[in-house]
Amino acid sequence: MVRRSGQALGAAAASGLDPAPGHIDHTTLRPPSDRLPQPFRLPVPVREHTMNNMAKRSLSEKLAILSDAAKYDASCASSGGERRDSRDGKGLGSSGGAGICHAYAPDGRCISLLKILMTNFCIYDCAYCINRASSRVERARFSVEEVVHLTIEFYRRNYIEGLFLSSGIIRSPDDTMADMVRIARKLREEEGFRGYIHLKTIPSASQELIDEAGKWADRLSINIELPTEQSLKSLAPEKDARNIKQSMADVRLKREESRAGKSWRGKRPARFAPAGQSTQVIVGADLADDRTILTQSSDLYASYGLSRIYYSAFSPIPDPAKALPIKPAPLMREHRLYQADWLLRFYDFRVEEIGGASGMLDLDLDPKTAWAVAHREHFPVDINRAPREALLRVPGFGTKTVNRLLAARRRGLVRYEHLAAMGAIVKRAKAFIIAPGWAPRGLLEEEHLRARFAAPAEQLSLF
Amino acid sequence: MHEVVLPRIGTVSAWRAEARKLARAGVPPEAVLWRRGGAAPDLFAGAPLQAEAAPREIRVSKAAIDGIESALYHSDPERFARAYRTVLRLSVGQAVWGDRSDPDIAKLLAQGKAIGRDVHKMHAFVRFREVAGQGPRRAFAAWFEPEHPCLERGAPFFAKRFGDMDWVIATPDLTARFEEGTLSFEETRAPDRPPEDATEDLWRTYYASIFNPARVMVKAMCAEMPKKYWKNLPEADLIPGLIEGAEARVRAMAETMPVLEPDRRARALSDHAAQVLARPAPEGPVATLAEEVRTCTRCDLCRHATQAVPGQGPRDACVMIVGEQPGDQEDLRGLPFVGPAGQVFDRAAAVAGMNRSAVFVTNAVKHFKFQARGKRRIHQRPDAGEVEACRWWLDLERELVRPGLIVAMGATAAEALTGDGRHMARRRGRIETLEDGTPVLIAWHPAYVLRLPDADARARAEAELAADLTIARQMGEAGQAPASHAAAAEKSPEIGHLRER
Fold first, then answer.
1. pTM for the complete prediction?
2. I need a labelling partner for B168 at 20 to 30 A (CA). Which of A28, A268, B418, B466 fits?
3. Among partner residues A89, A92, A159, which is closest to B203 by beta-carbon distance?
4. Contact between A252 and B208 using a beta-carbon 8 Å cutoff
């Protein structure tokens, strides 16, 4: 691996910035099977790192450190994008269509990609991040070859759909981005890898590097991190919201450029980052309310054509920064934000309609039911006559149910008892609809309508 | 009664052929007994067929065939009879595919979905282990236990994905073999679990490390990775330990006291970051002002837009063109008049013989105001407060450039400059004078031209815009030469004034 000469820095900083990447040590790649970790030991204690324990890390130790450091990125999507396969026998991998979750961790999150950082050394000091410059977490760095090796070997064993590579910022944004691009290029060009690659782009990296990243990667993403510019400024002093938005704008422009020229179907798939771009926002690390978060989301979807926005409830990290709230955000808040996000994208809801007067989503009630309970004047909806938009607003009806319902209406009258087979959650929907065989009677006027849906009060456990 | 014994390999295509044959012979569904067994396609039990009903040709939609064939991989012994019965009913129109109120169709759909899920889980949970191969291709093997005998439906996926390696997937029912690019199936004789592979250790390390102990959700995990698959997943034996240890790890995190003062290394890194991120100072007064415009937070629009779009053009321009506000493309690119309206402007300027690089092009409002609608941004007209807030920048640009003539395109620009944005139709093409004596030519906004529904009206408006720009060019040329050079010397103090701010 070619290394650039580091810039002149204090000795301590230089050691932190530029660890020896080292080549693959094959003794660590294939340990004898009697070294199976039983019971499993987690090699990631938080302790002061020194030059010594850094140089001798095995691949397994690096993997432990650098995947532990990557887990706060929620994205794991591997769907969409270009259709590729290796039926010709000249490469490895396939992609396009629905993604596959190859495993699930006990946190309920899917494992679809090898999600790692290239390095967790970082010159930035973002308070919410485990890898910030002032954190005492153990540091490691993969060489380009190691990342390629892990990706290919994991992929061949059908553990993963591809690679999700992010990185702390070492030396400079451009240096970091250049190394990440090198990994993607090597995978595609030398290994013939046709699986999925998701690259995190580094804010303020040069345009040429982003252009090349989009050529190799299926998806590019850059995290907006926080709901407002002010909180970003206070929690992540080195990051700049304008820079981040600018970078998303560039990716959108590049994608539009790459699909220029009409195909016979009228729309050519983008060749630049074919699976689009996404972002992540941390919930609960600042004081922003749900309305602010969702307004930002709807702006971002409209402005940059994002495929997804991920909401990550701020969760405690080892070695926390003093600027952070002590109490983690309830996971339910994150869940409600995802539900609201879906309402915005697939159910024609507008931000102003969600979240009621307080600007916060109801934790006890999903946002669609909450809206319906507050807007009873729109109900009951006649399932045989109502337009699509009205059906989409019925709690318990999803987009698929509505499609099936509309298709069934063409065949004849749809009865109440048909609804369950169409995928509707009848228990939820019944107060809001009329159908042959059903009338809600007093249900809708009931005083305790909200209580029918809200879960009984329960203390949310914090830990 | 006919007994049809379908082969264990190629069951579904054999069913399809048999069903067609039986329908053609007019055999009613209740007269057939279906069974899966036998090893090869030649083991059919073949009594001569006796017609008991009218012969039929099976004609069914492709979606129905796909759905039914998927359901045929289910382990339900009734599946073949149900499918035969249903295709006969579908082909005479007694049933409609997709009609979930029909019990047979509902069952087929449900079983087809179960197979879809089982196949998907096969694609997800097969774990290959490397084995000794022959020749240059690497070889891998896996043992997998699906819920239904659906290997034949699931295996082509692996042939597409792992085209450059040889592999074997053994299941209790069949074994798929992919060698030198050829996929074949055989019956599994004995369960064959390949020996453990060293990379599994790395995978387990990864699995344990990617788990976030602060958000244990075992139910969510088990819903997607049901326990029945665990026995063949190398990472599954870590799960109990991870769940058990999670609480202690979270408690340890909560008890860690934050560091109040960053250490020497952190301080050095922070200095380094500041050094790396330092931007070069803009060169020249136009760039300096542009940089200041970009940091504007004078109104709320900056929270939604990508960036402020400062004016563009030479400092000694004689003509300043003022539009309303940046649009979608301008917001993304950071340059004024580069979107569809910009193209109209460029066209009109070309007709007028105006050189765009010689004029100063800017907007009355520097941020894009829009309403988010799904994946699009709908332009919104800036309100008086926003125009007023942004006049600060327009005034500074005017002070900097000191144009001999300003062209106000559209009502917003007219309002920002003259304080009055009304009666555009009456005022267009006329020259008004500002307080400081600068003449302002009122013109259509290019976006107004674009929005006109009638093609003739559009052409007329565009011609009027071009005519106005022609006047502007002529006035600019007339007022140029000595006057502007003299003005350049006068302007210098302004730069200092800008920097001080």
1. 0.86
2. A28
3. A159
4. no
